[in-house]
């Protein structure tokens, strides 16, 4: 993408309404524009990051064997009356009446809709286990939408639902989701800690929330400091293996880590004092096992091996995709702007032409721009006729992890400059070497690296 042809409405002034850094930076970097309270348009740069996150979610769901689909945003109230949640959900549910006087609602979550699909089409235990998911907009009429996309009213969520014959099988599904979520967040450059949580309006006994530690987080969290040393990393794992998934669950949940809702002071105080931590966290996902709550209420049964109908055991699992854009910025920025982790960056590299209009500099930038494309990566080329200082400030603000700077002086010596956004470190090298370096960063040669997609395939491959 050439910046001269892009739509990147960066703001010079810090917007007064934004209270936290991610909200400020998303507005300043031209990623979002508020449409009304808690509802945002995703401008091109923000949309690109959102799509990258969706893509990681799809790849990791595919890896775990879960099946993508798409359900509508508007739902009929009747299904929610069957589960009893039409009344329980309260003022957070946006209720709509259509022209025929039918009660509709904008889905805050999809347990009812998916259970209806399941009961209509699945009749035998032989069709289990089954896990379906989608990535779709949700609406919750939050009392106090704030912090930009972190607590919106309309927000993008990945929500998945597992159907299993027995509690045991459903608990394996639960563990499998925990594993796949750990991998998902790590690929986004985040450490998200699973913490024992409260089930809220979804209901059920077993539930963990995933929290990213950040001072601006809305949850108060309590944990054993040893937990932050845990890494899923690039380990190989068989998602069908009950033992392997169980072992990961135990590894990541055996140390104390809870939100204020489930915090137990007596338990917490059993940890050696120097390891006790109190902090704030951003909830970026949650997994639930709720057994037969919905299947019994809505008659979602299958014929068991003995021919008798059994209500299926279910769980649901959510990732806050749009909130994650803000969470990643909260976890990765400095006073100049955003610093995207390589796995989610909207463009892999920025190219800055220090002297637009200079024949040699223009030609060198053009060939770098094409070379980046040729290796399957994306560059954002600042080809505007602007001063170097302004170009650097824009690149720093929008946070591309790598920048190649091209100017007449360097070119005389046959070099360009490669700069890391994170460390600020610059190294001069011939253009070809800069391309090789970039390629190596994004496609390191060992194939099992977690930062790598399963294969170089587009989003559409996963659906
Ligand atoms: N208002 C919101 N804006 C943006 N993302 C949200 C919002 N509400 C929930 N999410 C995201 O969707 C995920 C799954 O939804 P879930 O039903 O667990 O939310 P929740 O527990 O009600 O969230 P919260 O406690 O933050 O209100 C959450 O972990 C969160 O990341
Ligand atoms: Mg939650």
Automatic annotation (TrEMBL):
Residues 33-341 form the Aminoacyl-transfer RNA synthetases class-II family profile domain. Its EC number is 6.1.1.15. One of its GO terms (biological process) is prolyl-tRNA aminoacylation. It is found in: Cytoplasm. Gene3D superfamilies: Anticodon-binding domain (3.40.50.800), Bira Bifunctional Protein, Domain 2 (3.30.930.10). The keyword Ligase applies. The keyword Transmembrane does not apply. NCBIfam families: PRK12325.1, proS_fam_II. Homodimer. This is Proline--tRNA ligase. It comes from Roseovarius litorisediminis.
